[in-house]
């Protein structure tokens, strides 16, 4: 079941292949300030449905993660990164972290939230 999402102004729209089984709250400084809840997908499970020109990108410190946001309203929309499940970046296995708070017509309260201690991990 495809889930659609968008930023506040609607200039950045996307869809994912399925509803998340869980979402992640990261405690790193960027995620904490954004207030995002992340749902993770493979690149083939994610599709940007508006022109990429509507998306701006912020890269911090190591530059390994592209933190994307709407260039019009500023909502943090999705991030592109290597897989970190082993504790090291696996560039051969990229992940798309989608801000699940931006899903349209989706009951986010029904999805369990896990916490990653990003404040102390990176």
Describe the structure.
- With 122 residues, this protein is mainly beta.
- The chain has a single domain, classed as Metal Binding Protein, Guanine Nucleotide Exchange Factor, Chain A (Beta Complex).
- 8% of the residues lie in helices and 41% in strands.
- It contains 2 helices and 10 strands.
- It has helices at 29-34, 118-121, and strands at 3-6, 13-16, 23-26, 38-41, 46-48, 55-58, 66-70, 76-83, 90-99, 113-116.
- The strands form 3 sheets. Strands 4-9-8-7-6 form a 5-stranded antiparallel β-sheet, with no helix packed on it.
- A hairpin with a 5-residue loop joins strand 7 and strand 8 (76-83).
- It is globular and about 35 Å long.
Name the descriptors.
Mss4-like_sf; globular; 8% helix; zinc; CENP-V-like; mainly beta; GFA family protein; three-stranded antiparallel beta sheet; CENP-V/GFA; Metal Binding Protein, Guanine Nucleotide Exchange Factor, Chain A; 122 residues
């Amino acid at each position: 079941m495809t889930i659609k999402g968008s930023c506040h102004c609607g200039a950045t729209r996307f869809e994912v292949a399925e509803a998340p089984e869980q979402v992640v709250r990261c405690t790193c400084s960027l995620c904490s300030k954004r207030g995002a809840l992340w749902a993770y997908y493979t690149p083939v499970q994610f599709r940007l449905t508006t022109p990429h020109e509507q998306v701006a990108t912020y890269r911090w410190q190591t530059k390994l993660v592209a933190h994307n946001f709407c260039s019009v309203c500023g909502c943090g929309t999705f991030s592109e990164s290597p897989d970190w499940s082993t504790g090291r970046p696996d560039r051969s296995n990229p992940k798309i972290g989608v801000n699940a708070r931006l899903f349209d017509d989706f009951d986010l309260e029904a999805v369990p939230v896990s916490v990653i201690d990003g404040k102390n991990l990176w």
